[in-house]
Design brief:
Layout: E1 5-8, E2 13-16, H1 20-23, H2 27-36, H3 49-83, H4 88-101, H5 112-131, H6 137-173, H7 177-193, H8 208-221, E3 233-236, E4 240-245, H9 251-256, H10 294-308, E5 314-316, H11 326-329, E6 332-337, H12 345-349
Antiparallel strand pairs: 1-2, 3-4, 4-6, 5-6
Length: 375
């Protein structure tokens, strides 16, 4: 079936068509599928070109979600450090060190904005060339792979930059202050992205489609999976949806190392970005959580539970136990529960809380319906 874009009232934005299992497939793969539709003719004829062009635009929309978060948070971390007494000279020196450490394969130090602008222009030319029959199907697919690689290189270095700044926070102020740092910079993000799940304002069931869709969309943008194209492992159960990332393109890659570029775990030299050494409620009471991954606990579980009593999603992250160890390289897992009643007590205990009392479901009540995709 063709994949196209459509409007979703439940999500409040344009979304990809397709059921939930289909949503777990990379948007880049979907672009390629639309280009190849109609047979083996890779010339100017064939392909569902408009669908493919719109999906190129949407690929950049997914990337934009990640880019904006990284840009805003990185600036927020810097502002927080300055407020804590770190001098501008110290901070500039550390950022310059990280820019050199995180140089692109061509040796260019990390500089986000020019790379992002160039990526946008390249993706725009690709979509324009597909629409106008200026590119053969084969040429369009080759150029798509180039766009993917440029985004991967930029994405991964932005994730590493965040991890490097967080490591600087820990070195200067201790790992307990990571919580303060995150809480200081995440508030606008929480208001925009997660407060719609406040069950005091909106019934849990009414936001379930939104919750699941933005989870899938974000992790496609984070380029999860072995091929780093954004493919997600997805399962539906009676009480929950399960998403697995092998690896997550941010925290999972930080712990495993970069298989694409042949560089090692960011916990080790020359990076030494570190992991949590003491169990804390905001690290699922685990050690070995990378500093970057801690934000998933705070944004998805701890802060929602503080404010309205329940996690938005629950997370089972990889844990650093040494290079190549099973817990280090295990898949990160997100769970979106279909009802508040379904969330186990364990998920509250992991963040230092007790499951609140919930209304008892009356016998004969209708079960949570199975959803086939964003409405």
């Amino acid at each position: 079936m063709a994949t196209h874009l459509t409007w979703s009232d439940s999500v409040g934005k344009r979304v990809r068509s397709g059921d939930w299992a289909d949503q777990a497939i990379s948007t880049a793969v979907k672009v390629e599928d639309e280009l190849r539709a109609g047979g083996n003719d890779l010339g100017l004829a064939g392909g569902r070109r408009e669908n493919a062009a719109q999906l190129v635009d949407y690929y950049m929309e997914e990337a934009k979600v990640v880019y904006v978060v990284y840009r805003v948070w990185t600036t927020g971390f810097q502002d927080w450090l300055l407020e804590q007494g770190v001098t501008s000279a110290e901070l500039d020196a550390e950022l310059e060190r990280l820019a050199r450490l995180l140089a692109f394969p061509d040796g260019t130090p990390l500089d986000r904005e020019p790379r992002w602008e160039a990526l946008g222009l390249r993706a725009g030319r690709l979509a324009h060339g597909i629409r106008g029959y200026d590119l053969s199907i084969e040429a369009a697919i080759d150029e798509l792979h180039g766009v993917e690689e440029e985004w991967r290189q930029l994405h991964d270095r932005m994730a590493d930059l965040m991890a490097g700044i967080l490591a600087f926070v820990v070195k200067r102020f201790g790992e307990a202050r990571l919580e303060d740092c995150y809480r200081a910079i995440m508030e606008p993000y929480l208001q925009e992205r997660y407060m719609p799940f406040d069950v005091r304002e909106n019934p849990y069931d009414s936001t379930l489609d939104r919750n699941l869709y933005i989870s899938l969309e974000a992790m496609r943008g984070h380029l999860v999976g072995r091929d780093r194209r954004g493919d997600i492992e997805f399962e539906e159960h009676d009480d929950r949806y399960v998403l697995r990332f092998d690896p997550c393109g941010s925290g999972g890659r930080i712990l495993r190392g970069d298989e694409k570029e042949g560089t090692g775990p960011r916990v080790m030299a020359p990076y030494e970005f570190g992991v949590i050494e003491e169990p804390r409620d905001w690290t699922w009471n685990e050690t070995g959580v990378c500093h970057y991954c801690a934000h998933c606990n705070l944004a998805l579980s701890t802060i929602p539970a503080e404010r309205w009593g329940h996690p938005v999603r629950t997370v089972d992250p990889p844990l650093w136990r040494g290079e190549g160890a099973p817990e280090t390289v295990r898949k990160c897992q997100w769970t979106v529960w279909k009802s508040l009643e379904a969330i186990p007590e364990r998920e509250y205990e992991r963040i230092g809380r007790t499951k609140p009392a919930l209304p008892v479901i009356q016998p004969g009540a209708a079960p949570t319906p199975t959803r086939r995709g964003p409405a």
